[in-house]
User: Fold this.
Amino acid sequence: MLTVLTIEHLDAYFAEFNCGFSPATCKVYRSIIRGFLSYLYHQRQILKRDLAPLVVGAPIFAQAKPPTFLRADELKSMFDGIELSSQTGLRTYAMLQLAYTLGLRPIEICRITLDNISFRKAELNIDWRKCHNPLKLPLAEVTIKAIAAYIIGARPQSTHRTLFLSLHAPYGPITPTTVHYQFKVAMQKVNPAASVYWLRHTYAQNLLQTGVSLFEIKELLGHDSIESTRKYLLIHIKLMREVLFDE
Assistant:
């Protein structure tokens, strides 16, 4: 009766079969079943859907913490609330746009140099991601304009090629702590519970809603493992219902 096999059957099976084994042994058996399910779907076409990705152990669910993200009205309020007549405001606005439109970490924003940016191609060339994979990311028009406004109106004259500099002599590269602080101030005005990484989660949410695959999101976020990216499914309620309930 493999043609009618569902995740409920698998859950019931593992609840009974794995109850007496150690977590490590349970993990091995789940891996074996995932391989068999993948075979039934991809090679034999017996199953109507691939159940393998749904076979996840309880410890993973117990450790999973749904990421939080900014809603559309909060994003608008955050960007509208930045004072663009000041040097700090122009710099913060450009950094926020990079975090929101590209999902960059604070430390990655600090490492951007003038040589990484192609205004003509509207691209950001990254060669220092966490996973060490070079990447070319398209820059949105609003991000290009924000960077240009910062360079023209706020960036100090300096021999440093780093994009974002301190606003006080000797005008050296800023630190991730500075990015964290500026982001925290801007975000908590619209949501007191917000943290810096909400912008990365918001970026992932937007990608999911536009139909980008989990593997592509992994590459764009610079994750080493697909498991680090998989948690972002938890923030896309519509997609989660499709995955779990075939709706």
